[in-house]
Specification:
Blueprint: H1 8-22, H2 35-44, E1 48-61, H3 64-73, H4 89-103, E2 110-122, H5 144-147
Antiparallel strand pairs: 1-2
Helix pairs in contact: 1-4
């Protein structure tokens, strides 16, 4: 699942250009979720022992228009109901210039950052093994150094 920092370069460039050219902005990139929201959703669904990992992948493109074309090909065009249906040409050209100026690489390409969340949650079931009761151990952690004498030195 894409995280909240996905495509921040594109979002910032479009917002700045639209603000400058049209006096306001509307969302042109679909909203993404925050990691805290994922944890809350999983726990409300009855999962516990939650783990959410994140990766950031940066892909370089020749320019803003190639980023947008690739997103459309991925089926990731904006699905917001409250957005303006189109952007003016001068706003798009300004956004491309802002993108290049603020985030451009030395080779002329621009990065697009994708934040990806991986989620794991468990639901306990009566058929699963239960943890042993507290204090039911037969060996003490204090005895572990004594066990070291049974293991040959080269295997330690």
């Amino acid at each position: 699942m894409f995280g909240g920092d996905t495509l921040y370069e594109l979002r910032c460039s479009l917002q700045l250009a639209e603000l400058e050219r049209e006096g306001g902005f509307s969302p042109h990139v679909s909203p993404f979720t925050a990691v805290s929201d994922l944890g809350h959703l999983l726990s409300r669904a009855g999962f516990n022992t939650l783990t959410v990992d994140t990766d950031e992948i940066q892909v370089n493109y020749p320019g803003l228009f190639e980023v947008m074309e690739d997103l459309q090909g991925m089926g990731e065009s904006n699905c917001s109901w409250n957005r303006k249906p189109l952007l003016h040409r001068d706003t798009m050209l300004a956004a491309a210039a802002i993108y290049q100026e603020m985030y451009g690489n030395s080779d002329g390409s621009v990065p697009a950052t994708f934040q990806i969340f991986y989620m794991i949650g468990w639901k306990f079931h009566e058929s699963q093994a239960k943890p042993a009761k507290r204090g039911s151990a037969t060996v003490s952690f204090g005895d572990l150094p004594k066990l070291g004498g049974f293991v040959p030195r080269e295997k330690r």
